[in-house]
Amino acid sequence: MRGSRRVRITLGVSAGVLGVVVIAGGWLGYRGLQAERALRSVGDVVKGLQSDIVAGRTQALADELPAVQADAARARSATSDPVWRLAEHLPVVGDDLAAVHTVAAAVDDVARDALPAIAQLGAVLSAQKVRGTDGRIDLTPLVDAAPTLALADSTTARARDAVDAIDTSRLMDRIAGPVVTVQDGLGKASAALDAATQVATLLPPMLGADGPRTYLLLSLNSAELRSAGGIVGAVAVLHAENGSLDLVEQRTTLAFPATAQSVLPLTPDELLVHTDRLGRWLQDTVFTPDFPRTAQLVSAIWKQSTGETVDGVIATDPVAVKYLLSATGAIAAPGGVELRADNLLSVLLHDSYLSMQDPAVADEFYTGVAARIFRAVGGGQGDSRAVVEQLAKSGEERRLRIWSARPDEQALLAPTSLSGGFLSGTDDAAAGVFLNDGTAGKLDYFLTTTYAVESMTCGKNGTPGSAVVRLDLAYDPPADIRQYPMYVTGYNSGAIPTGSVQTNVTVYSPVGGSITQQRLDDAFVGGLDATEGGRAVSVMTSRLAPGGRATYRFTFPVPASSLDVWTTPTLTSSGIVEGSCTRAP
Q1: pLDDT, tens digit, for every residue of 458-484?
Q2: Nearest to 10 by CA among 114, 116, 117, 106
Q3: Which domains does the chain have, with CATH numbers?
Q4: C-alpha 494: how far from its chain's center?
Q5: pTM of the shown model
Q6: Residue 291 needs a FRET pair 20 to 30 A away by CA distance; which of 103, 377, 394, 585 works?
């Protein structure tokens, strides 16, 4: 039994409400104590669902399921009798009692309808059973699990929506904070279940269960930042059939010279924010923070160059590859260099540029490394569970992106973190902070980035709250950086001092929102102002000499109690940060 794991998510709500319910009457106090005792045993199970689903830890959940269900039912019963429900209409305490009832009902729904489905998955979706020693994915367990996952997903999503509908601005402070925690816990569990459902639904057809598929794999280079994580450094062609995924061709980006005009029509907003390079240079299709748009452009460039149509596009960055190496173990790079998780980034993004002065040779090395790592994973090297966990971690950090050319599959991908659809997806309430290198070099290897929701106040009585998002940049190259090859320091024709790094910072408000303030260190700053995808946009330019530091703060009106900020995944930061509000005094 995981008694110690069954408390945190709703215990705070239960403990906080006790003082309130005693005021409403002895009966309410008695029922409140019943609810608290019952919720103690199920709260942390709900909170831990996300990690349990991702890691496949379902056996312990199956063992304790009867007790969890009984406790959840008691909590719901204790907050559902006529006296409690009547008291929900009282002044002062009514909203708080209603909130506790909603939380108890949501937890009971999840325990009754979702947890049994999740508990069955361990035997069905064992990573060792799904991925064979030859790397082939056995698609049958995924097909069998899809209906079970769909049931758990829909139940948890309804519970999440019910709790999210609670207006925390109307609650007492000691209730509002824990309710936000419940909202966060169910939100994360729902997201994990949704992702698992999408995998079980999408993976069989996308891996060729119904016929062969062809995909492009983009290897992004974080030493030269783009909104999606890095400039496109290499392109590989993948062939999928009956659960096998094979690399059949690879090219450097030198094989794709710039086109005379954009391969697809660009909107006026895209031209203003990203310039026409977005649609002319394959390397720069990742200027946009919207991966479906990147994939459409890459597919069009590929078709124009080869005459071939692809079924989808996948992108990874070097940190995602590093995570995979931690699961597969070391591999031999071209030239015999041993690549491990602890040296991949330095070998790939630094050492190779010093030892290979010819950019074409460096690009070939980058392409060869990407191919060998893919073949190690595709060939079954490493522990299957560890591989799955590292892929999931990359997806959570927005380092792995997937787009399908088939509208029905893309519609299922769109709400997930794998889609990367900042502008075309469903996360309208999110803000964004994205970075694009302006040095035309590989200096971002030495750039440390830190994103955070520094502060956030809750809205009240229909008035939006406010969030301050912070970006810290720190540039620490070696002392001899000015002697590095121009391929590293940048082809900028002297416009930028050699050894300095220039970064274009692009900030997006939530849909329909605004950016009310922009500060660089202690000064207000402006930028190129535009709109894109219904969002306010501002583009600023940072230039740092060696040892330089910069701190940006961006202020947004925020109507919700929490905020997701999509960001450029870098060598030091993931592609998402989150914040939740605190009540204004």
Answers
A1: 888 778 889 999 999 999 999 999 999
A2: 106
A3: 3-206 (no CATH), 213-404 (3.40.630), 427-580 (2.60.40)
A4: 37
A5: 0.80
A6: 377
